[in-house]
Amino acid sequence: xSDVHAETELVTHDAHGTTVQGMFDRIxxxxxxxxxxxSLWTDVRWRRRAVEALALSDCGTEQPNVLDLCAGxxxxxxxxxHKYPQASIIAGDFSAxxxxxxxxxxxxxxxxxxxxxxxxxxxxxxxxASQHGLFCAFGVRNVSDLALATSEQARVLKPGGRLVxxxxxRPAGLLARxxxxxxxxxxxxxIGWLATGDMTAYRYLPKSIHGFNDAETYGELLGDHGFDDxxxxxxxxxxxWIVSARRRDPS
Length: 251
Ligand SMILES: C[S@@+](CC[C@H](N)C(=O)[O-])C[C@H]1O[C@@H](n2cnc3c(N)ncnc32)[C@H](O)[C@@H]1O
Hints:
seven-stranded mixed β-sheet, Rossmann fold, alpha/beta, globular, binds S-adenosylmethionine, 45% helix, 251 residues
């Protein structure tokens, strides 16, 4: 298999996108290690729970199409495959370095079901109403224009298809806010640096969380961009959240 980097260099939406893309390209080789160390392997459980919320068994086909957006090193794509082995999964990300770092996971049947593709969340190279499910773990917090990215997600989903977002939303409760604040300023950047050699990226993490919506506000935004049946589930005392929603029938 050729590597994604050699195939495509993607021009991002704006300067923020270029910075984020460069940051993930840089930390890609140590990214999975950092996730496991920082979450004490809890991220694996969070992804598994979020994948269940795709509810693809109810989508009316044996072979659903799923876009794993901001797929990074494709841990979620692989988790989606394990839960729904017949699904055709596009793993989309604008960091070719992240996709390349996860390529070793695509061996055997999993490699036949997951197609890594370099793409920007603001202009998805995916046909209208072509996806039965859209999954995005720890991605939407990074996009430059959340409204545009959300409209793109609505565009590519079939009516009735589910959007599942796993994310660190801005904490609402005092306990989660305190835990995020302390961990984000101390232990997490240190672990991130040990795992990847890059401190800047892991200083960006708490800033991006505190600059983002809380889960309720994000759920309202989905309602304004073509979704209904919004469901919000806190994980581990609100450290992370699953927000899922159904694509409304536009007609
Ligand atoms: C924190 S990582 C999450 C990766 C993976 N989903 C996971 O759960 O480990 C965020 C990913 O989003 C990607 N990303 C951020 N903004 C993006 C955009 N505008 N378009 C496509 N990918 C983007 C980054 O390159 C990075 O791989």
